[in-house]
TrEMBL record:
CDD domains: ALDH_KGSADH. GO terms for molecular function: 2,5-dioxovalerate dehydrogenase (NADP+) activity. Keywords: Oxidoreductase. Its EC number is 1.2.1.26. It catalyses: 2,5-dioxopentanoate + NADP(+) + H2O = 2-oxoglutarate + NADPH + 2 H(+); 2,5-dioxopentanoate + NAD(+) + H2O = 2-oxoglutarate + NADH + 2 H(+). The keyword Nucleus does not apply. InterPro entries: Ald_DH/histidinol_DH, Ald_DH_C, Ald_DH_N, Aldehyde_DH_dom, Aldehyde_DH_Superfamily, ALDH_KGSADH. Residues 19-466 form the Aldehyde dehydrogenase domain. Transmembrane segments: none annotated. It is an enzyme of class 1 (oxidoreductase). SUPFAM superfamilies: ALDH-like. Belongs to the aldehyde dehydrogenase family. This is 2,5-dioxovalerate dehydrogenase.
Length: 525
């Protein structure tokens, strides 16, 4: 498959007339051809209009047909083979093995949503029988979820496959029955085009309306702003910076018809080391934690950027082991010059904060855009007093906080902003103290995990990749896992609708064999 530098608007490849964008290899600075011809409001309008035209047909499709569509996209992405992996590697600097794993995750994610569609519970079909003899009488009430409308998807820089053009936002929106207009991330334009073309082909091969998928490309904020502001768009999926997510949320709220923005933004993912666990295996935890910190050059939204423990000899040993582990970690290439510059600025900024000391840094950079891992140390009192220490430094940097006792640790936890994850290392002797901490962590994070590391997000039914602000803009949802489909659905209640006009999912006799809640009882009757 050829990369041409075009946008994909419905069934067409369209050459924009606005700025030219170039893909860059962050490891070498080399410009990767071809040039990409960005568009603007005109192309956004065309893509969104087509999406609106496609919406009613697409949402009315039998779920099995949308499932087959998702599976065809998964097959197509796999069939791109080395072409996709090589290009993604060149554009992102991410290792080939990591990208191969990410491709598997992307395909599995699409297939998971195909299973979700076939299972049918996503529709939440619910029936309350009429009670004509009750006073007052109850009407016949039936409820199901329907698709929200066309969705704008902003691909993330740090997962060029699994969180990008055919990533979790797109997969869950398409599963819900929402056409997607994706904005290609400027950090992986060629990867975006390859994957976008697979989706475009799948639309044609499945005989779907062309507006089910489009992908626009553009330089600067204008195209993204125009996309979110377009009246056809009914929801937004975003992963990126806090500033970007908030800017797009403002655009969405200022529309004549405000719409939801599901933005996943920033998180420092605190790790709590409880005393017994620290005593028993502190040095092992230190080594494993540092491996998690530098994984993917720290460019994970779940990167462990904050570590808390109670002061004492076990913490001293942990600190020394962690500092030694960081000290031998090599600098590695970040995704883009911009992300690298932001990392350098963040680390330098930490260096200027009173009471925050750098205790280790990795092996110095030897090439462009390489980040050197960094470990800082402070006390709980100083951390609580200076809010700047809570800022996400996107990359392999973490802050170790010494707490006086478990009470101070819990007090600090209460001061934290919202997080994607909170991790606890605990042994049975710690459980009493953890029992007091857990309710605090539930309020702060979308996922609480024990005796592990936050990087590595399983794509499954029970996963929550979300959390209170600023981890996300809406803590009620997840952007990973089967439940992500709920972001792009809304319930409709049908009151006394004639049997002949009811949607199939709600008809008497349950012709689709769905799990349904009938008069409060769950069953398939
Ligand atoms: P970003 O700058 O927020 O950009 C993400 C996407 O949103 C891009 O397509 C960008 O397009 C668009 N965008 C950003 N601001 C916009 C605005 N005001 N109006 C319209 N569109 C806008 O994120 P990034 O490029 O991926 O990385 C930059 C920083 O984001 C990182 O250094 C890191 O701090 C953070 N980040 C966090 C996570 C996480 O999971 N927590 C993941 C990735 C990045 P344009 O660039 O064309 O404007």
């Amino acid at each position: 498959m050829q990369i041409t530098g075009d946008m994909l608007i419905g069934a067409q490849a369209v050459r924009g007339n606005d700025a030219v964008l170039q893909a860059i290899n962050p490891a070498t600075g080399e410009v990767l051809g071809p040039d990409f011809h960005g568009g603007g409001a005109f192309e956004v309008d065309r893509a969104c209009t087509l999406a609106e035209q496609a919406f009613d047909t697409f949402r009315a499709l039998a779920p099995q047909r949308r499932a087959a569509f998702l599976e065809r996209i998964a097959d197509g992405i796999e069939a791109l083979g080395d072409t996709l992996i090589t290009r993604a590697h060149q554009e992102s600097g991410l290792p080939v093995a990591r990208l191969q794993g990410e491709r598997g995750r992307t395909a599995n994610q699409l297939r998971l949503f195909a299973s979700v569609l076939r299972d049918g519970r996503w529709q939440q079909a619910t029936l309350d029988s009429a009670l004509p003899h009750r006073t007052p009488p109850r009407p016949d009430l039936r409820m199901q979820n329907i698709a929200l409308g066309p969705v704008a998807v902003f691909g993330a820089s740090n997962f060029p496959l699994a969180f990008s053009v055919a990533g979790g936002d797109t997969a869950s929106a398409l599963a819900a029955g929402c056409p997607v207009v994706a904005k290609a991330h400027p950090a992986h334009l060629g990867t975006s085009e390859l994957v976008g073309r697979v989706i475009q082909q799948a639309v044609a091969q499945e005989g779907l309306p062309e507006g089910v998928f489009s992908m626009v490309v553009g330089a600067g904020n204008e195209i993204g702003t125009a996309l979110v502001a377009h009246p056809a768009i009914q929801a937004v999926g975003f992963t990126g910076s806090r500033a970007g997510g908030l800017a797009l949320t403002r655009v969405a709220q200022q529309r004549p018809q405000p719409i939801p923005v599901y933005a996943e933004m920033s998180s420092i993912n605190p790790v709590f080391l409880m005393p017994a666990a620290l005593r028993a295996r502190g040095e092992q935890i230190a080594r494993d934690l540092v491996d998690s910190l530098v994984l993917g050059v720290g460019q994970f939204c779940t990167n462990p950027g904050l570590v808390l423990a109670v002061d004492g000899p076990a913490l001293d040993a942990f600190r020394d082991a962690a500092a030694a582990a960081v000290g031998v970690k090599p600098a590695a290439t970040m995704l883009t010059p911009g992300i690298h510059a932001a990392y350098e600025k963040g680390v330098a900024g930490f260096g200027e904060i009173n009471g925050l000391h750098r205790i280790a840094c990795g092996v110095a950079a030897t090439g462009p855009n390489q980040a050197c891992p960094a470990l800082f140390e402070t006390t709980a009192a100083q951390f609580i007093a200076d809010h700047r220490m809570q800022a996400e430094v996107f990359g392999p940097s973490s802050v170790l906080v010494r707490c006086r006792d478990a009470g101070e640790m819990a007090a600090l936890a209460r001061q934290l902003e919202g997080q994607l994850t909170a991790t606890v290392h605990a042994d049975p002797d710690d459980y009493e103290a953890v029992a007091g901490l857990l309710p605090v962590l539930e309020r702060k994070a979308g996922r609480v995990l024990f005796n592990g590391y936050p990087t590595g997000v399983e794509v499954s039914y029970a996963m929550v990749h979300g959390g209170p602000f600023p981890a996300t803009s809406d803590s009620r949802t997840t952007s990973v896992g089967a439940a992500a489909i709920a972001r792009f659905l809304r319930p409709v209640c049908y009151q006394n609708v004639p049997a002949e006009l009811l949607p199939q999912a709600l008809q008497d006799g349950n012709p689709l064999g769905l799990w349904r809640l009938v008069d409060g009882e769950l069953g398939r009757a």
